[in-house]
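Whiteboard transcription, Tuesday session. T.W. wrote the C-alpha cells on the left side:
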C-alpha cells in the first residue's frame, strides 16, 4: 500500500530513473551553464590578455569558491530541509525554510562582499598573488566582488526551485545569465569591442549575475508545493541553524577546496622558480588555472547530479521509503563515474587541444599545462561518486558523515601531500597529490555508504514502487 504522504507527490512513487532525468538533467545543464561564467572569462582573458591573465584569475578564484561555499551552505541545506519536511507532510515548515534561507543568504552575501572588498589586496597576496599577477588579480576581483551577493541569492533560489519540482525554471535562470555573460565578454574584452581587459571580463560576469537573480526572484510567488506568505519570511535563528546544518557537508567541501587552492597556489609559486626562469614564473599558476577551469566542467556535472538527486533522496527518506533513497544514490553515482570516464579519456588523449582553447603560449607553458592536466585529473573517475555519497548523507539529515568525507578528501589528505611530495619530486609532486587523494577518498566513501545501506531500516530488496 502506498504511503499516503507520498500519494500526491511523484517524488514518492515515480520511477527513480525517470525522476533523475527530470531533476538531474536540468540541474546538470544549469551547473554547466553556470560554469561558463568562469570558463568564458578565462577563454577571453587567455585570448586577449594572455597567460598572465589566466594566472591572475587563478589567484582570484578562491574568492569565488568562498562565495559558492556560502551558497551551498544555505542553498543545499535549505533545499534538503525543504524536501524532508515535504516528505513528512509539514508544508508550513517547508515554506518557512524558504523564507529563512533567503534572508540568511542575503545577510551572509552582503557581509561577505563588504569584507572581501575591504581586504582584497591582502586576501589576494594570501592566495598566492605577487608582482604583475597581483595587479591583474586586484583589477579583476574589485569588480567581481560586487556581484557576489547576487550570485549567492541566485544559487539559493535555484536550489529551492529545483526542490519545488521545477528544475527547468532553475536551468533557464542560469542559461539567461550565461548567454548575457558571453555576449558582454565579447563586447567588453575583445580587441574589436571596448578592450577593457580584466575589468571588462569581471563586469560582464557581474551584470549577468544580476540578471540571473532577477529572473530567479520572479519564482518566489510561483511555488507550487507550498504557499509562501509573509509569515514564511519571519526569520528564525534556530531554523536557520537547522537549514545550514544540512548544507554543512557541501559548504565544508567548498571551503576545503578554497584551502587547497590557496596551498596549491602558494606551492606552485614557491617551486616555480626551480623549474622556470623569473620571467616564466607565472606559468604554473596559469597552467593550473586552465586545468581547474576544464575540471569545472566535470565538477558541474557532479554537482548537478548531487542537486538533482537531493530532493528525491530527501523526500523519500523523510517518507521512510529508504529503498528509493538508496537506489537514487546508486544510479547517480554510476552516471557520474561513466561521464567521468569520458572526461578521463579526453584529458589523457587530447590535452594540448583543450589547453589551446584558453589561449596560446610558449612551448614551456603548453608542455606544463599538458602535464598538469594528465596528472592532476588522472583519478577523476572516482571524484563524482565520492561527491554523490557525501551529498547523500546531507540529504538524509546526517551531515557529519558528509563533513568527514569532505574533510578527508579536501584537507586531511591532499594538503599534507601537496607539502610533502614536492620535497622529493619537485613541482610534479604537487600535481600527484590530487589523484592519490581522489582514490583514497573514494575507498572511504564506499566503506561508509555500504555500511549505511546495510544498517537497520534499509531493506535489501527494493520496494515494488521503486
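and on the right, the sequence the group agreed on:
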Amino acid at each position: 500500500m502506498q504511503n499516503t504522504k507520498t500519494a500526491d507527490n511523484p517524488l514518492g512513487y515515480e520511477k527513480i530513473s525517470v525522476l533523475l532525468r527530470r531533476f538531474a538533467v536540468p540541474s546538470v545543464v544549469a551547473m554547466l551553464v553556470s560554469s561558463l561564467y568562469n570558463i568564458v572569462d578565462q577563454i577571453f582573458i587567455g585570448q586577449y590578455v594572455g597567460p598572465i591573465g589566466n594566472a591572475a584569475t587563478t589567484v582570484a578564484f578562491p574568492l569565488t569558491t568562498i562565495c559558492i561555499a556560502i551558497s551551498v551552505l544555505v542553498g543545499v541545506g535549505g533545499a534538503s530541509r525543504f524536501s524532508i519536511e515535504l516528505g513528512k507532510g509539514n508544508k508550513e515548515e517547508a515554506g518557512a525554510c524558504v523564507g529563512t534561507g533567503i534572508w540568511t543568504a542575503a545577510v551572509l552575501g552582503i557581509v561577505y562582499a563588504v569584507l572581501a572588498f575591504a581586504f582584497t589586496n591582502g586576501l589576494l597576496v594570501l592566495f598566492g598573488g605577487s608582482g604583475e599577477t597581483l595587479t591583474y588579480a586586484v583589477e579583476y576581483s574589485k569588480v567581481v566582488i560586487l556581484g557576489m551577493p547576487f550570485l549567492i541569492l541566485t544559487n539559493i533560489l535555484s536550489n529551492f526551485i529545483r526542490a519545488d519540482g521545477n528544475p527547468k525554471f532553475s536551468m533557464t535562470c542560469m542559461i539567461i545569465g550565461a548567454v548575457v555573460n558571453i555576449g558582454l565578454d565579447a563586447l567588453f574584452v575583445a580587441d574589436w569591442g571596448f578592450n577593457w581587459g580584466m575589468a571588462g571580463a569581471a563586469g560582464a560576469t557581474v551584470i549577468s549575475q544580476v540578471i540571473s537573480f532577477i529572473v530567479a526572484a520572479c519564482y518566489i510567488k510561483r511555488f507550487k508545493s507550498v504557499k509562501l506568505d509573509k509569515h514564511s519570511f519571519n526569520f528564525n535563528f534556530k531554523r536557520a541553524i537547522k537549514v545550514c546544518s544540512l548544507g554543512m557537508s557541501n559548504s565544508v567541501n567548498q571551503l576545503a577546496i578554497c584551502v587547497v587552492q590557496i596551498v596549491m597556489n602558494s606551492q606552485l609559486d614557491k617551486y616555480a622558480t626551480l623549474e622556470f626562469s623569473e620571467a616564466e614564473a607565472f606559468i604554473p599558476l596559469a597552467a593550473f588555472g586552465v586545468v581547474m577551469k576544464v575540471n569545472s566542467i566535470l565538477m558541474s556535472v557532479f554537482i548537478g547530479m548531487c542537486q538533482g538527486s537531493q530532493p528525491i533522496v530527501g523526500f523519500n527518506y523523510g517518507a521512510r521509503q529508504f529503498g528509493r533513497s538508496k537506489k537514487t544514490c546508486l544510479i547517480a553515482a554510476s552516471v557520474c563515474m561513466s561521464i567521468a570516464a569520458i572526461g578521463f579519456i579526453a584529458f589523457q588523449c587530447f590535452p594540448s587541444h583543450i589547453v589551446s582553447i584558453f589561449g596560446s603560449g610558449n612551448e614551456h607553458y603548453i608542455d606544463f599545462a599538458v602535464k598538469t592536466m594528465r596528472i592532476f585529473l588522472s583519478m577523476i573517475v572516482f571524484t563524482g561518486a565520492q561527491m554523490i555519497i557525501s551529498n547523500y548523507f546531507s540529504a538524509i539529515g546526517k551531515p557529519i558523515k558528509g563533513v568527514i568525507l569532505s574533510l578527508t578528501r579536501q584537507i586531511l589528505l591532499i594538503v599534507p601531500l601537496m607539502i610533502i611530495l614536492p620535497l622529493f619530486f619537485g613541482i610534479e609532486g604537487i600535481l600527484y597529490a590530487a589523484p592519490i587523494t581522489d582514490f583514497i577518498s573514494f575507498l572511504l566513501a564506499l566503506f561508509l555508504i555500504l555500511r549505511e545501506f546495510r544498517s537497520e531500516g534499509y531493506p535489501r530488496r527494493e520496494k515494488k514502487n521503486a
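Someone added at the bottom: Residues 114 and 145 are 8 Å apart (CA to CA).
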